[in-house]
Amino acid sequence: MSNYGTYLLINKSQKKLTNTAGIGLAWLTNVAFGATGKNKLLLCNNDGAFAPSLFLYDIKTAAVTSVIEGLVINKIVQDKAGAIYILTLHSGIKEINAAKLQEDKIEYTDPWFLQYVDKDFKIENIIFDNENNIWCIDVNRGCYKINITTHVKTFYSYTSGLFKNITTIYQDKEFNYWFLTYGKGIQKLVQSNYEEVNEINSTAILRRDYTYNLPGNAVFINGHTKQFALQNNNAVVLPASKKNTTDGLIFWQNQYWHFKDKNTLENQNKVSINFNLPENENKRQQLSNKIKTDKDGNILIGGTYFYILLQNGTYAAAGLPYFTDNIVADDDNNYWAFDRGNSLAIVYTYKHKQLVKIKEFKLPAIAPRCAALWNKDTFLIGTRYNGLLFVKAANGAVKPFLALTREKGLSNNFILDIIKLNKNKIALATASGADIINFSGTDTSLQKLSLGINVYDPVANLVADSAGNLYAVSEYTGKLYKYTANRFNDINYYPTAFFNQIWVNKEKISSNKNIFKYDENNFLFQAGAPSYIDNRNITFYFSLQGKTNKELFNNSGDFEVNNLEPGKYELLVRIVYPGGIYPEQKLYYTFKINQPFWKTWWFILLIIMCSALLIGYFIRNFYSKKLERQKSELEKQYAIEQERTRMARELHDGLGSMLSGIKHSFAALKNQVIMDSNLDNKFNSNIEKLNDTIKELRNISHSISPDGLLLYGLENSLRDYCNNITSPGVLNISFKALDTEKMLLTEEQAFHSFRIVQELLQNIIKHSGASNAIVQISYNHNCLYITVEDDGKGFEIDDDLNKKGMGLKNIESRIKILKGKMDYRTTASEGTSVLMEIPCAEKNI
User: Fold this and answer.
1) Checking CA distances to 480, which of 96, 299, 548, 609 falls within 20 to 30 Å?
2) How many helices (H) and strands (E) does the chain have?
3) Averaged over 731-757, what is the pLDDT?
């Protein structure tokens, strides 16, 4: 419909509507085709050029078959069944007669639902939702919701918080209602499987006591003026009580009963029963406001006395040691009383029309206020201060082993009533409203029913019917609320969870990014779960695993972690929907925080390599300098040796020759001079002294320097040295030389080799205690091989080499100068063998 005409799209082909009656088809405002018949449209025209009109148009013939002029129509609405309604400016809302439309006539009447709205309620718009309801809107007053089948109505007024000037109502896939208002924005109607029972609350104010199960799976609801039986989602008003007050009112055997005194129960017909309590029972009667039933439907009343009213008409009573809020029946129909005095849990059985005490358990100081059976010997205890406790009765005591508190999600730690709905679900009445707890494996999910509908009154009593529906009575307002277990089972919608936003160091990032620098370690995850049914009770469970582990659950969907250490992480988010209306959703996010560069493996390896190189440089430099010092020292020693050799040669060749000459002169003189025996003896004595002097001079010369090295070579010098220091009977030193003819040693090589053997032999003499020693030299392939062995006591290599004296250090220094190798082979008590390999030249023969 446009300013220039009306067009019809048929099989993707556009057709402009025309007519033979000359009625304008531009500026059309509404169209309907539900009940008009095939190929016909109901149109309205408010064009100023033509009189306002409502007309029936035949598409095939392009003819207007019926017209009502002068009717200003604001809107044409049709329901799912095709019924057509018109909202007029002056005449209000009308329903088009469907039968007359088939006769090409337009007639209208008042719609059926007008009888369910106030007379002064001006319907300015109507909406049909997906739950068989019609919504009637008055922009100045509010809106009615009327069920088309049952005609049950609910009125939403501006005085209850609804925005004014509602223009339309939208229902989404979850059946949530959204109110669109002019100038105010959008408002959502809170929808929950926990809601007021209007058919009762609109007619009565309930009492906070005596709400319990009746035979036949009905629920008894006690009001100040009326009593109800709820069954199969229907509320039936019970016959009125003849008693003026409903205090202590009990519905039993299809009659009302009340306590006349602690020993007498009287019905409305003045028929009474007596409990035959002992005469010495002087305790004042106080009745609990919580009545429970066992699996056979027998009524259990607590307080300062325990009363049981059986379905067969029998009854019994027993005095309790202290006030008990409610009696719990176990699977064997034994009856447990957990008293407020924090002292005892007493077990009774009904036998021979009497309550008989059979067991007694000690109670810890837990301040019980209600109790229920969990299984066999495990009970649920609602406390005054400590939330919900799971306790086990065994070995004469009741011991708690698990607690659920406000810190773990409960609305309040003060628990007033408990109902076990099934093996995995319990309901709690708390001082801040009703809660549902679901147990699934190791997971626990909690739904705050009252919070979901913005109600925070304490709940006094809970009772459940056979269908799993829960009823709760408010402590302060006396209103009845109902939790419908399968309220949302028909929703054909499954939400998809996602990360709404991820923040790193207060900057928003994409969820595709998962690698961060070491200082990007402060995270805020905001998970989303697009469901608007009781969205306050959607629970988000966060579990972060990695270098740092953290777990958290909340209803906000926000999870913040700060100062994470570098490493790999995985975040799991589980979204649990209230009441299990949707399957559990899961989100995963893996990410990695890199190490700072100074902690990366390559940087550490680089540092290690650089350190190793630096340490190696210093060590090499140290040993190089040490070697240079040793070499310098040896060079000094070598220079000294050379000087000593020169001095020895001078002594030997100079002074020795002169003394030898004197000796020969004296010998010649003796032959030329005739001496008496006395003079001859003196002369000979002087000659002997001169020989001793020459011999001593030779020894001094040899001790200063082994001049034989220069004169006779290494082999002869070593042989001569070994012979000189051999001590028969003490140390026998043998010397061997093999294949040394081609060996060519420098003066320095011969000198150091001689000194090495000399030092080794001195060590044998001083330290080994050996009896025999061998010195052997040989030559092969440009190498001089020297072996020095003894049969002494030997030594431990690790100990003695770690305690090197100057002798061994000098030997090693000389080996290094000669660029040779040396190997020790020794064992304690088995002698020592030293092997040396010294590179040298070969003679050209």
Assistant:
1) 299
2) 11, 60
3) 89
For residue 475, CA distances in Å to 209, 303, 431, 823 come to 9, 19, 9, 101
What residue type is 401 in one-letter code? F
Q: Which of 711, 732, 715, 714 is CA-nearest to residue 723?
A: 732
Residues 824 and 836 sit within 8 Å (Cβ to Cβ): no
Judged against a pLDDT cut of 80, whether residue 479 lies above it is answered with yes
pTM, 2 dp: 0.60
- The rounded distance, in Å, linking the Cα atoms of 488 and 130 is 13
Q: What CA–CA distance (Å, rounded) separates 41 from 515?
A: 62
Nearest to 838 by CA among 792, 773, 778, 797: 778
Lateral strand order in the sheet of 166-171: 166-171, 177-181, 185-189
CB count, 10 Å around CB of 653?
Answer: 12
Higher-pLDDT residue of 645 and 89 is: 89
| Collapsed DSSP state (helix, strand, coil) of residue 491 | coil
Q: What is the pLDDT of residue 21?
A: 59
| Six token digits for residue 223 | 């009001």
pLDDT for the residue 767: 84
Reported as half-sphere exposure (CB side, CA atoms, 13 A), residue 316 has a value of: 15
Per-residue pLDDT reduced to its tens digit, 793-825: 887 766 555 545 556 777 888 888 889 999 988
Q: How far apart are CA 369 and CA 418, in angstroms?
A: 10
What Rg, from alpha-carbon coordinates, does the chain have? Answer: 58
The residue with tokens 């940087």 is 603
Alpha-carbon gap, residue 548 to 572, rounded angstroms:
14
Q: Quote the CA–CA distance of 46 and 413 in Å, as a whole number.
A: 64
Name the residue type at position 38: K
**HEC string for 147-160:** ECCCCCEEEEEHHH
Rama region for 522: left / alpha / beta (φ>0; ψ in -120 to 50; rest):
beta
Amino acid at 232: N
**C-alpha distance across the termini of the chain, in Å:** 128
Token pair 């500026």: residue: 27
Q: What are phi and psi of 400, to 5 degrees?
A: -70, 145
Exposed e or buried b for every residue in 268-296, given b needs 16+ CB within 10 A? eeeeebebebeeeeeeebebbbbbbbbee
Whether the CB-CB separation of 177 and 192 falls below 8 Å is answered with no
Residue 37: both structure tokens together: 């018949």
CB 448 within 8 A of CB 537: yes
- Asked if residues 777 and 719 have their Cβ atoms less than 8 Å apart, the reply is no
Backbone angles phi, psi at 213, to 5 degrees: -80, 140
Tokens of 435: 């809660």
